[in-house]
Amino acid sequence: MASTGAHIDSMITGVNRTVAVVFDFEKKWLSETEPSFMNWMLKNWTMCFIYSLVYIAIVHCGRMYMENRPRYELRPALTMWSAILGAFSLMGAIRTWPELIYSIYEHGVQHSVCSPSYFYDPVTAFWSFMFTVSKVYELGDTMFIVLRKQQLIFLHWYHHVTVLIYVWYSYTERTAPGRWFMVMNYTVHAFMYTYYALRAMRVRIPKWVNIFITAMQLSQMIIGCTLNVWIYQIKERGETCHQSNENLQYSFVMYMSYFGLFAHFFYTTYMVKKEPTDSKIKSS
User: Fold this and answer.
1) CA–CA dist 121, 12 (Å, integer)
2) Which residues are known to be catalytic?
């Protein structure tokens, strides 16, 4: 344990006093639980592929099951589900933003992109773990779409599967730019799931809010792509950046595909003028 502590001390500069309060469960996670969880992840991270295959199979079978059945309303359950994820994401954003700001302010942007020091901060270490396991929980989103017989677009399930695989893979190598990806995702989801909860409660929300959230998602993909290009340039100069080439390639392809899909969604949803149809006129 002493050698491990010395190794950690050599990787980070000083102690990151990023938040005023560090909860006991965050301290205990880093000192007592995280090593065993990391060992488990190193042996079992590929279970994310099994989760993904089971998820796709359940979604496919669920759509077949619902094809000739009336939709379920499920508004109370959807409200609760979205509210839990909204509150969780908000807390995650609140707890992880300070460390990102501290890293940039004290050590520079390149440090925030290339150093995995956030894994050794008790607050961000715990919320990195929560972020990782939450990607399995979030797969349940799709069942509400299936059971309520709403349109299931490719972007939705593709995003769930690829994020789950990437996050579990990245946790095992303590990918440095993960602090950026985590903070951005927590922040966007705080807005997104809160919006879903309010919609499920039949609260009327202006259209610009929906546009704003989609724009946030698109901005997240642009930043992700930009970071990947920059990290590639850093590594090409021979400088140290804690992200494997395989991880960088996966991340770049993932974020580029997200950018294309979200840009297409934004364009077709908010920019293309749709011709009124008889069904729309009747329902208005």
Assistant:
1) 10
2) 159
- Determine the Cα–Cα distance for residues 188 and 73; give it in Å rounded to an integer: 26
* Residue with token string 């301290």: 27
pLDDT of residue 73: 93
What does the pLDDT look like over 122-175, one tens digit per residue? 999 999 999 999 999 999 999 999 999 999 999 999 999 999 999 999 999 999
In residues, how long is the chain?
Answer: 284
Q: What are the helix (H) ranges across 201-273?
A: 207-236, 245-266
- Looking at residue 18, its pLDDT comes to 61
Query: H or E segment at 113?
Result: helix 109-114
Predicted pLDDT at 275: 57
- What mean pLDDT is predicted for residues 20-29? 90
Residue pair 108/232 in contact by the 8 Å Cβ criterion: no
Alpha-carbon gap, residue 51 to 96, rounded angstroms: 27
Q: How far apart are CA 211 and CA 234, in angstroms?
A: 34
Q: CA 200 from chain center: how many Å?
A: 22
Please state at what angle helix 154-172 crosses helix 47-66, rounded to 10 degrees: 160
8 Å CB contact between 47 and 165:
no
CB 183 within 8 A of CB 100: yes
Buried-state track 17-39, b at ≥16 Cβ within 10 A, e below 16? ebbeebeeebeebbeeebeeeee
